[in-house]
Write a structure and sequence with these properties.
Helix content is 3%, strand content 40%. The chain has two domains: 323 residues, 6 Propeller (Neuraminidase), CATH 2.120.10; 68 residues, Trypsin Inhibitor V, Chain A. It starts with 21 loop residues before the first strand and ends in a 5-residue tail after the last strand. By secondary structure, it is mostly beta strands.
């Protein structure tokens, strides 16, 4: 690597090989940089964000203006005597942000039972969102704060009416929305199965876990992908156009080996059209890559474009197209530099309109053969329920005379498989 000075970030565009996509990695004097090194996926160094303090786990997020967000250790203040504090560690974690040629800014001072984690920075570097787990109550909350440490405010938390454990907040490229994961299984929760506390869905109902969206001020919370396991994903990552989110989840094809399940790369639409597609094979980005059937992946993130995803597997870092093609290894090695943080650039024009996939329309099946009608219903997320037969002079034998509900009717579904449709089949002309 080349020695570099203290400036960050040249605008660059990802090519097919990803050579000019910029990422930030941790450093302790490597390439003449104590702090955070900025480099391309081919290993060429392009800048440095100096920082001489302690860093836990490397950079968590990086923005186009040179902002790097990370966690640092901080001693907890004295525990209140009225509280049982024996299990609380002496040191916690706080979120900090540093920019080229500037001192690091501590964005908050955690109290005795608080730890900051899962930080995400707006693409323009103006704001940071982070998770605050509470050790004493095994709950969590999501905060947003300006990059200068001002304006700290709570945007989502557990409460007595609709509590849940929240994690992995991520600010959208346009800065207007935050994605996060919600789970009703809070750490140490003795209730099983837990109540449904995450949502709402388009029909106003709640589920036990899922991928959530809200406005950056905490309003308009809604679920866009229904989860069905107690564990949440690692960090969430937006595509630059705001139309996709990627995360790790349990693999569909070969993800479980000798009883142990290993996370794989998944991507979901942000318009809610994948509400019922959690762990669907069509959403698994690396399903055709046999290497990951025995190796867990970590920290998938859109990098440089809305069609390329970077992820770590076995200390190696790979770039893959969102459709699962053109997977190749980069020059980065997490055993040497830790997990990279792709530089986020402002983009997108807001989220696409939300699609209500819980409201489905009955397709036209009249005059179709039974086999053709069954296929058409399945494509529209329905299935054949009861069958009746009647004589018909105008409809061929074995073809559909009528369906109930009628074609064009709007019905509700609460799962991937929609409600049954009753079919009336022709017996041919009356003898």
């Amino acid at each position: 690597m080349l020695a570099v000075g203290g400036l960050l970030l040249l605008p660059s565009v990802a090519g097919a090989g990803g050579g000019h996509v910029e990422v930030v990695v941790g450093s302790a004097g490597t390439a003449g940089c104590t702090g955070f090194v900025v480099e391309s996926l081919n290993g060429a160094v392009s800048g440095c964000v100096p920082f001489a303090g302690a860093v836990l786990g490397g950079p968590e997020a990086a923005a186009a203006d040179g902002s790097v967000v990370f966690g640092s250790p901080v001693p907890f203040p004295p525990c209140p005597q009225a509280e049982p504090c024996a299990h609380i560690p002496e040191t916690g974690t706080r979120t900090e942000v540093v920019k080229p040629n500037r001192n690091a800014v501590a964005l908050d001072a955690p109290a005795w039972d608080e730890n900051d984690a899962d930080a995400s920075v707006a693409a323009d570097g103006s704001r940071v969102a982070f998770l605050r787990p509470y050790a004493q109550t095994t709950t969590s909350a999501i905060y947003v704060v300006n990059a200068d440490g001002s304006g700290l405010h709570l945007v989502a938390s557990m409460d007595t009416t609709n509590g849940a454990y929240l994690s992995a907040p991520a600010i959208s490229p346009d800065g207007g929305s935050i994605a996060y994961w919600c789970s009703s299984w809070s750490p140490g929760d003795p209730v099983y199965p837990p109540p449904r506390r995450c949502g709402p869905l388009p029909d106003g109902s709640y589920r036990r876990s899922g991928l959530m969206l809200m406005n950056a001020d905490g309003t308009d919370k809604r679920m866009i992908v229904i989860g069905h396991d107690p564990g949440g994903p690692g960090p969430l990552s937006w595509s630059p156009n705001g139309r996709w989110l990627t995360m790790d989840a349990l693999g569909v094809e070969g993800g479980c080996v000798i009883g142990r399940c290993k996370p794989q790369v998944f991507a979901y639409h942000t318009d809610g059209s994948d509400l019922f597609n959690y762990l669907d094979p069509s959403q698994q980005v690396n399903r055709w890559v046999m290497h990951e059937t025995v190796t867990a992946v970590d920290a998938p993130q859109f990098c440089g474009s809305s069609s390329q995803i970077l992820y770590e597997s076995g200390n190696q870092v790979y770039l893959i197209n969102r459709n699962g093609t053109h997977r190749h290894r980069t020059a980065l090695d997490t055993a040497q530099a830790g997990y990279p943080a792709c530089v986020q650039r402002p983009g997108g024009k807001g989220l696409p309109p939300t699609v209500n996939v819980m409201r489905v329309t009955v397709p036209e099946a009249r005059t179709l053969s039974y086999a053709a009608a069954k296929r058409r219903l399945q494509r529209a997320h329905f299935h054949v329920g009861s069958l009746k037969r009647a004589f018909s002079a105008g409809i061929a034998r074995g073809h559909v005379i009528a369906e109930y509900p009628h074609a064009g009717a709007h019905v509700h579904r609460s799962s991937k498989q929609g409600p049954p449709i009753k079919l009336v089949l022709s017996r041919g002309p009356r003898p």
